[in-house]
Amino acid sequence: MKIYEKAPAKINLMLDVLHKRADGFHEVEMIMTMVDLADRLELSGLPRDSIIISSQAGYIPLDEKNLAFQAARLIKDRYNVKSGVHIHLDKRIPVAAGLAGGSSDAAATLRGLNRLWGLGLPAEELQVLGAELGSDVPFCVTGGTALATGRGELLTPLANPPQCWVVLAKPPINVSTAEVYGRVRSNQISVHPSAQRMREVIEAGSFAGVCENLGNVLEDVTLRLHPEVQQLKEAMVKLGADGVLMSGSGPTVFGLVSKQSKVARIYNGLRGFCNEVYAVRSLT
Ligand SMILES: C[C@@](CO)(OP(=O)(O)O)[C@H](O)COP(=O)(O)OP(=O)(O)OC[C@H]1O[C@@H](n2ccc(N)nc2=O)[C@H](O)[C@@H]1O
Ligand SMILES: Nc1ncnc2c1ncn2[C@@H]1O[C@H](COP(=O)(O)OP(=O)(O)O)[C@@H](O)[C@H]1O
C-alpha cells in the first residue's frame, strides 16, 4: 500500500521574541501561514521492521538525522508498530531556508503513517508528537494559518489572510536557527510587531493591513550577519512587492503581491540576485 502526502512550506507573517526561557528556548509570538510550495512524500509499507528514506535531493541527510526518519521512528516506537516504511521525499522546498521544509516533512510523515498504519490518532495527538521533533512541527501538522506561542507549539487557528501571490527568494547563504536565536537580546528589541494587530487585519480581510503589519524581530540578527538579505529586501520593494519580510530565521525573503500582473516583473528582477526564486499562491 502507498500513501501520498504534500508537505507545504510556511512563512511567518509576524514573529516576536518575548524572552529566553530557563530551558534555553525562546518564548515567541508568531503568525504563520502556508504557501503553495510543497515537498511530496510517498510512503510505502514494508513488511520488515525498518525505516528507509530516499530522495532525489542530494543535499539532505537520509539517515536518522532526517526529520522524516525521526518522525517515523517516534510514531513507530510510541505505538509499538512492528512493520516498517519506505519514505521517498521529492524535495521542492529550499533547505535551511526559514520555510520549515524539514518540519513539514516530519508533520507529513506523522499524518501519512497515521493513515498507513491505521492508528486513528487525532490531529492534536500528532501535534503533541510533533513537538518532540521541533518547535514548528505542530503547526505543520494542521497547517492553515495560526498564532503560535510558547516555543511555537501552542496554536490558535486563525482565518486565512486574503489570497495573494507570494514571491520567495533564497540567497545562497546558510543561516543556523540556533545561532540566530542565540544572538537575540529580547530586552534590546526596539519595535515589537503586534500579533493582536495582525489578527485584526486578517479577520478584517485587509491585504493592505497584512502588508503594513509584517514584522520579524529575527531580521535584525540575520541582516547584521548577512547584509545581502537586506539588499534582497530592498530589491523586492523596488520591484513593486506590496509587503516584504524575511521568513523565520531566514535567509529567505518573501514578498506579498496582490496583482498577478506584477509577479513576473518581480520574479525576473530577483533572478538577477539569486538562483532560488519561486512565485506561488498563498494557501487558503
Ligand atoms: C525560527 C522559526 C520560526 O518559525 O523557524 P525557521 O527559521 O527554523 O524555519 C522557528 O521558531 C524555529 O523552529 P524549528 O526550526 O522547529 O526549531 P527547533 O528545531 O525547535 O529548535 C532549533 C533551535 O532554535 C532555538 N529555538 C527554537 C525555537 C524557539 N522558540 N526558541 C529557540 O531558542 C533553540 O536553540 C533550538 O535548539
Ligand atoms: N526532510 C528534511 N528536509 C530538509 N532538511 C532536513 C530534513 N531532515 C533534516 N534536515 C536538516 O534540517 C536542517 C534545517 O532544514 P529545514 O527544515 O529545511 O530548515 P528551516 O528550519 O530553516 O526551515 C538542515 O540542516 C537539514 O540538513
UniProtKB/TrEMBL annotation:
Active site residues of this protein: 10, 136
Catalyses which reaction(s): 4-CDP-2-C-methyl-D-erythritol + ATP = 4-CDP-2-C-methyl-D-erythritol 2-phosphate + ADP + H(+)
Enzyme class at the top of the EC tree: transferase
GHMP kinase C-terminal domain boundaries: 199-274
Presence of the UniProt keyword Hydrolase in the record: no
Residues annotated as binding ATP: 94-104
Pathway: Isoprenoid biosynthesis; isopentenyl diphosphate biosynthesis via DXP pathway; isopentenyl diphosphate from 1-deoxy-D-xylulose 5-phosphate: step 3/6
EC number: 2.7.1.148
Keyword Cell inner membrane (UniProt): no
Annotated GO MF terms: 4-(cytidine 5'-diphospho)-2-C-methyl-D-erythritol kinase activity; ATP binding
Top-level taxonomic group: Bacteria
Alphabetical keyword list: ATP-binding, Isoprene biosynthesis, Kinase, Nucleotide-binding, Transferase
Alphabetized InterPro entries for the sequence: GHMP_kinase_C_dom (IPR013750), GHMP_kinase_C_sf (IPR036554), GHMP_kinase_N_dom (IPR006204), IspE (IPR004424), Ribosomal_Su5_D2-typ_SF (IPR020568), Ribsml_uS5_D2-typ_fold_subgr (IPR014721)
Any one GO BP annotation for this protein: terpenoid biosynthetic process
GHMP kinase N-terminal domain segment(s): 66-144
Family recorded in the similarity comment: Belongs to the GHMP kinase family. IspE subfamily.
HAMAP family, per database record: IspE (MF_00061)
Stated role: Catalyzes the phosphorylation of the position 2 hydroxy group of 4-diphosphocytidyl-2C-methyl-D-erythritol.
UniProt protein name: 4-diphosphocytidyl-2-C-methyl-D-erythritol kinase
Organism: Paenibacillus donghaensis
